[in-house]
Structure formats: C-alpha cells, structure tokens
Amino acid sequence: MDAHTPILPPYEQLALYIDGEFIQAGGRREQDVVNPATGVAFARLPHATTEDVGRALAAAGKAFQSWRFSSPLERSKILRRVAELIRERAPAIARNMTLDQGKPLAEALQEMATCVEHAEWHAEECRRIYGRVIPPRTETVRQLVIREPVGVCAAFTPWNFPFNQALRKAVAALGAGSTLILKGPEDSPSAVVALARIFHDAGLPAGCFNIVWGVPADISSQLIASPVVRKISFTGSTAVGKGLAALAGAQMKRMTMELGGHSPVLVFEDAEVEAAARFLARTKTRNAGQVCMAPSRFFVHESVHDLFVDAFAGIYAGLKVGDGLAQDTQMGPLAHLRRVDAMRSLVADARARGAAVLCGGERLAGEGYFFPPTIVTGLPDDARLMTEEPFGPVVPVTRFRSTDEALARANALPYGLASYVFTNSLATAHHVSNRLEAGMVSINHFGLALPETPLGGVKESGLGSEGGTETFDGYLATKFVSQSSLVP
Ligand code: NAD
Fold first, then answer.
1. I need a surface site. Which of 29, 101, 182, 486 has the fewest CB within 10 A?
2. For residue 220, which atom of ligand 1 is closest to its CA?
3. Is residue 78 left, alpha or beta, with left meaning phi > 0 and alpha meaning psi from -120 to 50?
4. 449: three-class secondary structure by DSSP
5. Active site residue 292
6. 220: which residues sit within 8 A by CB, 6+ positions away?
7. What is the CATH architecture assignment of 16-259+463-478?
8. What average pLDDT does the chain have?
9. CA distances (Å), 397 to each of 206, 252, 275, 336, in order?
10. Annotation says 258 is catalytic
11. pLDDT in tens, 362-385
C-alpha cells in the first residue's frame, strides 16, 4: 500500500438479526453478493432457516406486547438517536451500498442524508398520533376514537434504495408502536444490516426489529401465512406485489404496497423546453434509472420535440458512466445482470418496431453490468418500452398534438405512480394535474419523496402512502371506545 492508498472501511459483516442478536451463517445456506461494477462476488449472505423465521415471528410477537404500550416520547427518542447514528455512519454505509448496489458514491451519500431527515420526521410525527373525541348523544357518555398500533408487520424492501426503503418502513412501523420483521434485498444487503446495527445501538428493545434473508418467495409466504403477522408492506414490482397481496388478502391482512410505475412526462410547447430536457436527462440517470418514480414515458408537443431531444442528448453525450466509487462517475452500473438483459430486450423490441436509437442502446463492453443512457424516438405506444416499466436508463420520447391526446396516452397504462408536467401556463398545469391518473404530480421540477410529503400510487401502482402525515396510517388500527358513567 503506498501513501496515497485510502484506508477503506471493511464491508458490512452480513448477518441475520433476530431478537436483538446478530447471527452469522454458522452452517446455514449462503448466497454470493456481487459488485455490479465488476461482476465479481466479494461477500456471502446467510439465509434464514424456517426455524430462524419462526424465532423472528415469536420475538416480534413478544416484543409487541410491551412496545405497543411504550410512550411516544420514548419512541421519538430512539428514532432521534437513529437519525444521529445514520449521520455518523453515513460514509461507511454509503460506500458499502455503492459496492453492492452500484450507484455513484455521491448518490449513496445523498440517500443517507435523506434518511436522516426521514428518521427525524418520524421522530417528530410519532408524538402526534392523535385520536379524537366524538360528541355524545347523552351527557353521561364519552365517545373516544383511539389509534392503536396494528401489531407485528412483515416488510419486504428492494435493492434500488436499499437503506432508504428499509428505513422508511422501519421508522413508520416502530414509530407507530408496531414491531417488524424485514426481508431486505439479497442482491444489495449491506445497508439493511447496517440499519439493524443502528437500531440495536440506539437502544431499541430486542425483538422489535428483525432482519431475515433467503429465497424471497419462501420467506414471504412463511411470514404472511403466520397468524402472528397482522400487516404487510412491500416495495417492488407490481407483479410480485399482486402475488403478496393475494396471500395477505386470503387472510384479510392489512397492506401497504408501493409498486411499479411508468411515469409519464408531458412537455408542452410553452415550457422552458431546453431547461426541462437538461433537467430530466440528469434526473433520469439518477440510480441509472432504477427508480420507481423515474420519468419514463416522454410525451413532447410536436412543435418542440426536436429541440427537446437535442438538449436531452447533449447532456448524455458527455455523461461519464463507470464504477460508482470513481470520483468522476455520473452514472453507475445497473444493479444486476437481470436489468441489463431487460434493457437489451426493450431496445430490441423498439428497434423492431421502427424506432430510432439516438444514443446508447448496447451493453458496454468489459466487466460489470453497464448499460449507457439511451434515447429512443419514433416508437409506437404499444412498443414494450412504452408499456412495461423500464427501470433503467432508457428514454422513449414521443410526440403529441393536443392536451387531450397527451392525457389519454399518459393515462392509458394500469400504472399510476408519479407523473411530470412541464408548462408555463397555470391553466394547463391545473387542467392536467386534475386529470392525470397518478398518486403524485410534479410540475416543472422533481418535488417528490420528501419526508413531509406522502408517496404512493393509484391503480396498479399501489395502496397506501409512505411519508407525510399519512405515514403512520398503515401501521395503526382504529378503535372506538364508548364509555358511560351510568348503567342505563
Ligand atoms: P422482481 O420483481 O423479481 O423483484 C422485485 C423485488 O421484490 C426484489 O426486491 C425482490 O427481492 C422482491 N421479491 C421478489 N419476489 C418476492 C416474493 N415472492 N416475496 C417477497 N419479495 C419478493 O424483480 P427484480 O429483477 O429484482 O427487479 C426488477 C423489477 O422490480 C423492476 O422492473 C421494477 O418493476 C421492480 N422494482 C421496483 C422497485 C420500486 O421501488 N417500486 C424497486 C425495485 C424493483
């Protein structure tokens, strides 16, 4: 090692976390963790056995019996400590997230900074979980609406924002007084283990938060079938979400579903077209497009289409794609080979339907899962790129003539997560935001996913919201108590 070699933190020691204990492989089945920038496996993740999952269920059930009666003040203090520890540990956690997920280090650090805010928001908001008093029909009666924690929750979080997605579910469930068993993303597991260590060190009682790993369908079916679990929360694809919802529905379990999207972007002729194109090009490359609310179907007024595409392509021309740990990298690899294959297949389908590929379009040669930013124009609305969530750095741009046409095409898919509008007309902004079938509309910027704002979809993009004052709703049950001071 020479004097200039930086001293790097060690990769996270991967483990299960059950009933307050970190559990190493110890003969359990393990799976490889691969660096997507190199394609090389560099760590092993232990899988939970059926007995491990059973112990996590028992621990979460037992812990709930006391955590449900913890005071909001106590929960708030722990969540505040969690926020402080995230801030302290962010550099090491972010670097490990880049190693196993691929995103550029600056983006991983940004994810950590956002999570400090989420933890602080939940620490504040959990002290304001209020019920209400309903005026009675008789003076001797008092009618109370109480909001109680729902019970043991099972959560399943994805690999695109490994720390953020797990943290958001954990602070919402725990802040509400529920307990949690979480299965994180096996592809990118370090952030979730680091999160468990943070809760552990923040003084969360044993059993309130548990982490298990394994074959996703095996773990989720065992957890959802258990009578101990009262609620499930999933972030991931619509297809998997529907399967989990069916399992939960069979037992009438509550659920929060944050599913896929294929977010339309409507660029009107009166917009600041070039600025919008440059802004969207940079937004789209965040996390290499692997973002559920990424702008992903572009409808541009025909009079400004070419101007838009040229400005967009200008940003992509100089964009540096590379290892997320290299300082000048602006876009990292895709998280795994499955996404590279999906990008190739979507671009091939568009080509076969006569589309033009203006830049990118082919996997980058060499090691790692790199696919360049790609712009596709002249494709029909039934091209797969326009109907399937791309979840990658491929941008389909189409033309529209009238507002009604753009709205009809934007609303044509079963998805309804985010949507974006670029216009300088207040009337257009108002008209369109009233008619877009989406859980979120962002006009002239990207203004979504803040701790104080609700995130969620309609149609097949999900059920319920995370964040905002709505954040605890999914983790609470409403109880009505009517008490009389006299027996009539
Ligand atoms: P996938 O559909 O197999 O998995 C998506 C996520 O669900 C993963 O985290 C996976 O571990 C989990 N999962 C899969 N089957 C499960 C089961 N039976 N029980 C519990 N969890 C299960 O696909 P993938 O290749 O990992 O990801 C690609 C697709 O996933 C994308 O096209 C995108 O639609 C979706 N995705 C969405 C988000 C989001 O933020 N909404 C995040 C990541 C992935």
1. 486
2. 19
3. alpha
4. coil
5. yes
6. 154, 156, 183, 244, 247
7. 3-Layer(aba) Sandwich (3.40)
8. 97
9. 51, 42, 16, 26
10. yes
11. 999 999 999 999 999 999 999 999
